[in-house]
Amino acid sequence: MDPLRRSPLSLVLAVLTAAGLAYDAKVHLHLAKTYDPVGGSITQGGLFRVEAVVAILVALAVLVSDRRLVWAAAGLTGVAGVAAVLLYRYVDVGSIGPIPNMYEPVWFGEKTHSAIAEGLVAVLWLVREGLRLRRRATATAR
Question: What is the average pLDDT value for the chain, to the nearest integer?
């Protein structure tokens, strides 16, 4: 299947996924300056900027391509974001080598909304994979 040709449902899922990733990037870019003082050679603000760039690149990729690898990148970006925010919300991990201690035992609006967006991106990836498997099963049954 041509990666640029996709079903209308796949396109809707891609647009929703890209929107979730774009929101995630917006929040991380907005908060990065606030977290620049956290850390040394690697700061939490710097990590937020990396997350934002990854989210933007993957959002663009999922709009352009319907390939499984691209969708996996989108889904894993969402899963990693949710995992990180939950881990550092509930566990004081401490510093890991040059990675600063990002423990922050509070929820606030942008953090909550970003976590929801990341979670939805992961769910949309699973929905897309489910549709792909269903299509394959239907084609095999014929």
Answer: 94
DSSP one-letter code for 43: B
CB contact at 8 A, 128 and 13: yes
How many other C-beta atoms can be found within 10 angstroms of the C-beta atom of residue 12?
12
Contact 116, 16 (CB under 8 A): no
Count other Cβ atoms within 10 Å, centred on residue 16: 16
- Listed by start position, the domains of the chain span 8-141
Note the pLDDT of residue 4: 61
Tell me which long-range contacts 123-128 makes (C-beta under 8 A, separation of at least 24). Answer: 124/13, 124/16, 124/17, 124/20, 124/74, 124/75, 124/78, 125/17, 125/71, 125/72, 125/74, 125/75, 125/76, 125/78, 126/75, 127/13, 128/10, 128/13, 128/17, 128/71
Q: Which residues are CB-neighbours of 44 under 8 A, at least 6 positions away?
A: 35, 36, 38, 100, 102
Average confidence (pLDDT) over 110-117: 97
* Mean pLDDT to the nearest integer, 68-81: 97
